[in-house]
Design goal:
The complex is a heterodimer of chains A (174) and B (349).
Chain A: H1 17-36, H2 39-56, H3 67-93, H4 112-120, H5 123-134, H6 139-146, H7 150-173
Helix pairs in contact in A: 1-2, 1-3, 1-5, 2-3, 3-6, 4-7, 5-7, 6-7
Chain B: H1 3-12, H2 19-30, H3 41-44, H4 48-73, H5 82-92, E1 127-137, H6 140-156, E2 160-168, E3 172-181, H7 185-193, E4 197-207, H8 209-233, H9 240-272, E5 273-282, H10 294-348
Parallel strand pairs in B: 1-5
Antiparallel strand pairs in B: 1-4, 2-3, 3-5
Classes of the chains: A mainly alpha (174), B alpha+beta (349).
Chain lengths: 174, 349
């Protein structure tokens, strides 16, 4: 079964969970992929996100925000939970084993320089780039997902893009 | 490479989920129950400011409506007009006479004619006649005229004025103590009650004839005793020592006679003149409180309930306010710390 990705249109109030999932799966997956830089992990976390969303669906209120920002918020919580457990695991295992190598090319279609520059950014920096640039949320929606003000989103984005540009330039010079 | 180029490349390489993930999610999604937002979902979506904008006026309206409703439905509260009405009745029926004299002290209904019901003094008997009249006049001008006429009537009937008290502002009242010959008292009352509308009237008659008769008898006895003592003192063969004793006894009797005659004169004077206590007042005078209307009662009660509600709300604010502030501060601190930890975690990843 192949699902086509629908355009990011405003979600109607009577949207079903299936419609919302179909419409925003790529956004959730893309967000988690940029955050984790691991396709397989992003795949797993996306599945977990939609399981959580399914359980929370009866409580979803379109008046508080769109289904897209709601799903991305759940995805962020899921990713943070994973980062926490991963951080604990790494602290335990670092003494006996070297850290695992992360995927260099985690996004298909990007130049190696950009892939490399993105990998050098922190998850927090990649997060704001994926939300604002790749998924194309507006400032207010991004602020809602991240739990910060739109001004802070704007500041974080410009810093992250400047850093990304600098990394790409450095990579080109090498 | 500029930022614009980077953005264009990032957007061109937008990631898409694998088919396997799509199928898993779709399978999951089709089993989803329909969304049934709870009745409180709308409320939970309100911001604090929006909630306050609705809740505060709504609460105020409910409290005012509650107070108004209770005030209208149950105006006979503990501080309602019952006490005022009792006070009014008390004022209209002051100086209730003893049981033995009650028959002589009829209470007139306001505005009725006085001549038909005012008891007349009994001719030929000494009686103490007291009348207490309260009349209502239209305004301060009429009060002045009525006061002057009352004084004129008193003098015309051979009486005199003991005291006059006259006070006006927006409303006014004058109080007079009048002495009128008892023979003319009925006529005086009729004429005085014509000066305004009768609010209350109280007439009391005490019979003094028994006292007068007793004093007359004592006077006669003393006169006879004095005559006898004088006759014995005048005898030629009386012993000087006895004479001195009899003279002393005659002097004592004479002093006692003088006292009896003085008392008798006072009683007769009291019986000759009736005392009329006349009060004239304008219609809005505070002497007689007006009966509050049902609407006034309702408003008074509603204001009372609002005051109680305000006290309760303020008490709750004073008690719960600091606790709520502490709870909000704790919540904000925990949220801030959690966000900082999340940011640190993402910055390190």
């Amino acid at each position: 079964m192949t699902l086509t990705r629908p355009a990011a249109a405003p979600v109607r109030q009577q949207t079903t969970f299936a419609e919302a999932a179909e419409r925003h799966l790529d956004d959730v997956f893309g967000y988690l992929l940029y955050l984790t830089r691991d396709r397989s992990l992003a795949d797993d976390l996306s599945g977990s996100t939609f399981e959580k969303a399914l359980r929370a669906w009866p409580r979803f209120d379109p008046l508080r925000g769109s289904a897209r920002t709601w799903l991305l918020g759940i995805a962020r919580t899921t990713a943070l939970d994973w980062f926490r457990s991963e951080s604990r695991r790494r602290r335990r295992e670092e003494a006996v084993a070297p850290p695992e190598a992360e995927e260099a090319d985690f996004v298909e279609g990007l130049s190696p320089a950009l892939q490399s520059a993105l990998a050098e950014l922190s998850a927090g920096e990649r997060e704001v780039i994926v939300l604002r640039v790749v998924i194309e949320l507006d400032g207010e929606q991004t602020a809602r997902v991240l739990g910060i003000s739109p001004t802070a989103v704007s500041t974080r984005l410009s810093r992250a893009l400047a850093k990304l540009e600098e990394k790409v330039r450095d990579d080109d010079l090498r | 490479m500029t930022s614009a180029d980077l953005i264009a490349e990032l957007q061109a390489a937008r990631p898409t989920a694998d088919t396997g993930l799509r199928e898993r999610v779709l399978e999951l999604a089709v089993s989803a129950p329909p969304r049934r937002p709870s009745p409180f979902a709308r409320l939970s979506g309100l911001s604090l400011r929006r909630f306050a904008l609705v809740a505060v006026p709504a609460t105020a309206v409910v409290l005012i409506a509650l107070a108004g409703g209770i005030g209208l439905l149950d105006p006979a509260g503990p501080n309602s007009s019952t006490a005022s009405r009792e006070s009014l009745e008390f004022n209209q029926a002051t100086a209730a006479p003893p049981a033995a004299q009650r028959a002589l002290a009829p209470q007139l209904k306001a505005g009725t004619a006085a001549d038909a019901t005012t008891p007349a003094p009994t001719t030929g008997r000494a009686q103490r006649y007291s009348a207490d009249l309260t009349l209502s006049v239209k305004d301060v001008d009429e009060l002045s005229d009525a006061t002057q006429q009352a004084l004129r009537i008193t003098r015309d009937l051979g009486g005199y004025v003991v005291s006059v008290s006259y006070a006006t502002s927006d409303t006014g009242a004058s109080t007079m103590t009048l002495k009128v010959p008892t023979a003319n008292v009925q006529q005086a009352i009729v004429r005085l009650t014509g000066l305004g509308t009768i609010v209350s009237q109280h007439v009391q008659i005490d019979d003094l004839q028994g006292q007068v008769d007793e004093l007359t008898k004592q006077e006669t006895v003393l006169l006879e005793r004095i005559a006898k003592l004088s006759a014995r003192i005048a005898a030629p063969d009386i012993d000087p020592e006895v004479k001195a004793t009899l003279v002393a006894r005659r002097d004592a009797a004479r002093a006692q006679l003088a006292q009896v005659r003085s008392t008798k004169a006072q009683v007769n004077a009291e019986a000759r003149y009736a005392t009329i206590q006349l009060t004239l007042q304008t219609k809005q005078s505070s002497v007689v409180p007006t009966t509050p209307s049902r609407w006034d009662d309702a408003v008074d009660r509603a204001v009372g309930i609002l005051a109680v509600e305000a006290i309760v709300v303020l008490t709750l604010l004073v008690i719960l306010g600091p606790l709520a502030l502490v709870a909000v501060a704790v919540w904000l601190t925990r949220r801030g710390l959690r966000r900082r930890r999340d940011d640190e975690l993402l910055a390190a990843s």
